[in-house]
Write a structure and sequence with these properties.
The longest helix has 21 residues. The N and C termini lie far apart (about 30 Å). The protein contains three helices and five strands. It has a five-stranded antiparallel β-sheet with strand order 2-1-5-4-3, sandwiched between helices. Helix 1 packs antiparallel against helix 3.
Length: about 140
């Protein structure tokens, strides 16, 4: 099956699956700005709905912190655990629609920024191709 035959959701899942495989992420989730899951990929059997719920909580907390400290919009939120696990949330916009790409790393020293930047660029490009009108506003 080539890319032209895939649905938009299948293409998003493929982007996340490829990012996970190349970067060694056990799970990644793409959500809307409120943390509702749009697409996910997991190599570890982790529950994407649980991660999406955490994304929503992290996003609300980040917005509150930004307001309290009078900071501009959040570019990234990371949560590092003593055991080396790392949870990253990368909010981004496509037109007027807010999204969050969240990934989990099993090792704190693992690089993630380039992989998530590439995935976000691919998501933006495909989103405009598949959903030219603003469906998520």
């Amino acid at each position: 099956m080539n890319k032209e035959e895939l649905s938009g959701t299948e293409v998003l899942t493929k982007i996340l699956t490829e990012m996970n495989a190349k970067s060694g992420f056990p799970i990644s989730v793409l959500t809307d700005k409120d943390g509702l899951p749009i697409a996910w990929a997991s190599t570890s059997g982790d529950n994407p709905e649980r991660q999406s719920a955490v994304v929503a909580y992290v996003q609300r907390t980040a917005l509150q912190v930004s307001k309290q400290l009078e900071m501009t919009e959040v570019e990234e939120v990371s949560y590092a655990c003593a055991n080396g696990q790392h949870f990253i949330c990368r909010p981004f916009q496509i037109d007027d629609n807010g999204f969050i790409l969240a990934v989990t790393l099993n090792a704190r020293d693992k690089s993630y920024r380039r992989a998530t930047n590439v995935a976000i660029t691919e998501i933006k490009n495909m989103w405009k191709q598949y959903w030219k009108s603003s469906l998520w506003a």
